[in-house]
Amino acid sequence: VHPNVSQGCQGGCATCSDYNGCLSCKPRLFFVLERIGMKQIGVCLSSCPSGYYGTRYPDINKCAKCKADCDTCFTRNFCTKCKSGFYLYSGKCLEKCPDGLEANNHTMECTSIVHCETSEWSPWSPCMKKGKTCGFKRGNEVRVREIVQHPSARGNPCPATTESRKCIVQRKRCQKEGKGKKNREENRKKSNKDESKETRQESKGRAARRQNREQRENNNKTQPKKRKAPNKEQDLAPADTAH
């Protein structure tokens, strides 16, 4: 062992030196060189930092740098995230997306162009004019459809979702709303009047019955009691006995 090499290292190092840091790592850790000013020192990490990818060998696990345009990568030739100004497509970082694809500035990827899609037209509505279905001969009917897929930035825009056309119907009179309302109001008043009349009649009947009952009670109180008629047979009985 070199005099400057120590085996009692910290931070996951298997061997190290005071000047160069880690020289080898413990099993399953990755060795990577970090630059500090003009100096590079070795460190041992459980996973490689951003801009590096890990490679495993029988004698050592190392972190290697990604390509200059990659922010993170799986291997040197397969990027998983690009640096600013580049778009990811099939593991590569491109300044411009291929034909048939568009740049997604949110995910910084090249994605397929999406065109607008709509549902089928609904049936035509009833023929109307100014919101009414009566009182006219010529009106308009409409139909609608819904957007089921909004387009991407370079996709075909959505068509109109509403259509209108003229229509002809047999003219029919509209029921006057004021007249109908007036009739309903009159019927309500009449019903209330009939109920009030029945209530008054019931009240009068109860008052009359009460008055008759009170009159009968007063008559019974003021009328003198009738004397009981004498029994003629009892009165004649002594005279018959005397004879």
TrEMBL record:
Interacts with the extracellular domain of FZD8 and LRP6. It however does not form a ternary complex with FZD8 and LRP6. Interacts with WNT1. Binds heparin. Interacts with LGR4, LGR5 and LGR6. It is found in: Secreted. Its main location: secreted. Activator of the canonical Wnt signaling pathway by acting as a ligand for LGR4-6 receptors, which acts as a key regulator of angiogenesis. Upon binding to LGR4-6 (LGR4, LGR5 or LGR6), LGR4-6 associate with phosphorylated LRP6 and frizzled receptors that are activated by extracellular Wnt receptors, triggering the canonical Wnt signaling pathway to increase expression of target genes. Also regulates the canonical Wnt/beta-catenin-dependent pathway and non-canonical Wnt signaling by acting as an inhibitor of ZNRF3, an important regulator of the Wnt signaling pathway. This is R-spondin-3. Pfam families: Furin-like_2 (PF15913), TSP1_spondin (PF19028). One of its GO terms (molecular function) is signaling receptor binding. One of its GO terms (biological process) is Wnt signaling pathway. GO terms for cellular component: extracellular region. Residues 11-110 form the R-spondin Fu-CRD domain. Residues 175-219 have a biased composition (Basic and acidic residues). InterPro entries: Furin_repeat, Growth_fac_rcpt_cys_sf, R-spondin, Rspo_Fu-CRD_dom, TSP1_rpt, TSP1_rpt_sf, TSP1_spondin_dom. It comes from the Eukaryota. Keywords: Disulfide bond, Glycoprotein, Heparin-binding, Repeat, Secreted, Sensory transduction, Signal, Wnt signaling pathway. Residues 174-243 are annotated as: Disordered. Coiled coil: none annotated. SMART domains: FU, TSP1. Belongs to the R-spondin family. Residues 116-170 form the Spondin-like TSP1 domain. It comes from Toxostoma redivivum.
